[in-house]
Amino acid sequence: MTLRTIPTPSSAHAIQPAVGETRPAPPKRYRPRLRFRGVGMAAVGAGLALFLGLSSTAATAAPTPNSGPTAGGTGITLEAPGGITFTRASAGAWYSLAVASNGDTYAWGANTYGQLGTGNNDASVTPTRVQAPEGVTFTQVSGGEYHSLALGSDGNAYAWGANWNGELGINSANGGSNVPQRVHAPSGVTFTQVEAGSANSLALGSDGNIYMWGNGTNGILGNGTEEGSTVPVRVHAPEGVSFTRASLSSFRALAMGSDGNTYAWGYGVDGLMSSFLFLVVSLLESDQFSPILF
Q1: Is 217 helix (H, G, I), strand (E, B) or coil?
Q2: Domains in the chain: how many in total?
Q3: Average predicted confidence (pLDDT) for the chain
Q4: What's the farthest any 2 CA atoms get from each other in the chain?
Q5: Nearest Cα to Cα of residue 201 among 188, 216, 186, 189
Q6: Cβ–Cβ < 8 Å for 284, 5
Q7: What dihedral do alpha carbons 188, 144, 44, 234 form, nearest 10°?
């Protein structure tokens, strides 16, 4: 499998515009209107229309300033239900998910397609318990555009919400579900991480492979085609490489390899064209990445 190296930040900065060509201005940096100064954050997340900050006792949502139905709005703080604390969280497109210290998972926000997993399609302005299968607790959650994923204490992945493209991984693309459904994992494989995208899903397997399902446009499923799948399919990793962490956005995926490299696939990782091949992202020790304090 052919590998290419994406220019590092330092080398990219050295590229000069052609004669008569104007270098485009850097994109604006947006910050949420609500600032979290003075509050210790246990976790943070960003969705299509909001930023989510999680303290030990509350979830604070700050709307994105430039897009979506929450643009220009003010932030809100939602207290956790009495007697519990939130430990992990994820921001979906217009909704949020949080794992609580009592083993329950809570959701709030938009719910048109059942993405809250509460057994109905009613929106909620307060944290409402997700209806997990009996005997199963969720240890990690991920909110997508209109569907959600969770990692179960039994090693299975669970999905709920919209399912137009098979993004729930239940061997069907008909309708959706407003309660969690078990993803059809490959035989002998348990999952250690889940990520929900726009119309597809990703899970890291106990075997070091990444599995994806849902819409396959632009090769985002990483299996060498643009065919979609209603059940998990293995991403074609370079020979000898297993994966330790992964991240999924609307049009591309990233993963940390056992060889120390970062791999990317999907739309936009090969110039402006789609790519079914892995690309190696090279990072130098001198590269600096500074977080912004909100």
Answers
A1: helix
A2: 1
A3: 75
A4: 66
A5: 216
A6: no
A7: 30
